[in-house]
Amino acid sequence: MFKKAFAAAVVAAALIFTGASAANAAYTGSGNSLSPSDSTPAIGEAVTLTLTVPGAANGTAVFTVSPASGAGLSSIVPAAASASTTKSINASGVATATFTATAAGTYTVSTTVNGATGPSTTLTVSAAAGSSLPSTGGEFPAAALWIGAGALGLGALAVVAATARRRANQR
Predict the structure, then answer these.
(1) Predicted confidence band at 153 (pLDDT cuts at 50, 70, 90)?
(2) Residue 14: inside a domain
(3) Could you give the number of structural domains in the chain?
(4) 71-74, strands of its sheet edge to edge
(5) Is 113 exposed, middle or buried (CB count within 10 Å of its CB: 0-12, 13-18, 19+)?
(6) Cα(24)–Cα(19) distance, integer angstroms
(7) Does the residue 66 lie in any domain?
(8) DSSP conformational letter for 88
(9) What is the predicted pLDDT for the residue at 122?
C-alpha cells in the first residue's frame, strides 16, 4: 500500500513541477505572425490583431500592449480595455484581439503562445485629421425665437377669439 501511495505522489509531483516540452519552445518560427488590420490607426479607431501560429492549434495566446497607458486590448469594442487579454487559438492556429488607443503614440503589442514568446508588432497611433468637434447647430438666431413665440401667441389669440365667437353665437 505504501509503495502505491509513494509512486502516486512522485507522479503527481513530476506533473506539477515539470512543464510540457512544447510550451518551452518559442513560437517565432516561419509561418507565425501577428498582423494588425491597420498599423497606423487614428485615436479611437479599433484595430483587429490577427495572430497566426499554425503549430499552436487549440492553445492559448496572451496579447499584451506596451505602454499600457493610452491604449488597451479587448474582446469586444467598446468593452473596457486592459493592457492584456487572453484568447483561445482555434484549430487553424489563429487568435484575434482588438486594440484601441485613446492617445497618440507608438505602441508594441506582443504575444505569449502557450507560455512561450510569440510574435509582436508595432502600431503608430496619430490624432485624426481635423479632429475638432463637429458642428451640432448649437447657434440659434434670436430672431427665429421671437418669430416662433409670436406665431404661438397669434395662434393662441385666434383660438380664444374663435371660442368667444362660438359662445356668443350660441346665446
Answers:
(1) confident
(2) no
(3) 1
(4) 33-36, 47-52, 94-101, 71-74
(5) buried
(6) 8
(7) yes
(8) E
(9) 92
